[in-house]
Amino acid sequence: MKTPVAPGAHEVWIRNEVIGLNPVDWKVLGDAELGWQPGHVPGVDGAGTVVAVGEQVAAAWLGQRVVYHQNLLADGSFAEYTRVAAHTLMRVPAGLDMATAASFPCPALTAWQALNKIPCPAQSYVLISGAGGAVGHYLTQLAVRRGLHVFALCHPRHWDRLAQLGAEHFIAFVSDDSFAAAGQIFDAVIDAVSEEHAASLVPSLRANGHLVCIQGRLSQWPNSPFGRSLSMHEVALGALHQFGDEQAWHQLTRAGEQLLDDLDSGELIAERLVIGDFAGLPMLLDELKHRTFSGKPLIRLFQRG
Prior knowledge:
By secondary structure, the protein is α/β, with parallel strands linked by helices. The chain has two domains: 11-106 and 239-300, Quinone Oxidoreductase, Chain A, domain 1, CATH 3.90.180.10; 118-234, Rossmann fold. Helix content is 29%, strand content 24%. The strands form two sheets. Strands 1, 2, 3, 4, 5, 12 and 13 form a seven-stranded mixed beta sheet that branches. The chain starts with 10 loop residues before the first strand and ends in a 5-residue tail after the last strand. The model has no long low-confidence stretch (mean pLDDT 92). InterPro entries: ADH-like_N, ER, GroES-like_sf, Lipid_raft_assoc_Zn_ADH, NAD(P)-bd_dom_sf. This is Alcohol dehydrogenase.
């Protein structure tokens, strides 16, 4: 689309510079429940410049470098231009490159939401399951910054990287002796694998512990009444587009801008970036689906002069 129509009153048009690819992008393709019509544009993460604003949007947004997480029900970021609700925008710091910014929204904001679910104080023990993925990459850093002791459950190929980010202990599989020997020591378990995997981790929680599910919540409560009194939490970043109010979005985007500042200053470390061009998008999406590479896949639409 070369010449976008006028945005809605509370919307902006963004000319995308870099697109971020996420697992949700391949998972929703062909999902009839979303009601996508032929011609619908997928993609949830993008970074670019605001080129048009709606009647109720401050003119100061024009020309602003921004990053966003898009509503799955709206046309997404896999395009030159994307129309986005203004309240979802996050400003990109002047010193941060747009590729790093585009790699940020879905994994980093999901990690922020997940950690905010648990009230554990400093020195608590947290198990991050699926720590080798994009969400785990940010979760590890945010948990360490909060003073938590991080156990990373993931493939050993990720251990060196996660150790550099502050993880203290490493487990390859739930069946490992090291996991069984740990016993009920965790104040919180954050699982980014599956409902079944999350259920297998419940025995490792202490009384009054917290189970946070990112990839499928448990269909049944994890303990009997008056047992260990476990709490269960669900994380779904996209749900905010349907159910989030102004206060919730303000909280999320302000937190997002602070994390972007932390990326700019080096206090937060982004994943290794794997950048392709638009013609290579299907291939990168397929490689992401089959996990044939390590890093964050991105598509650069154009290079700033």
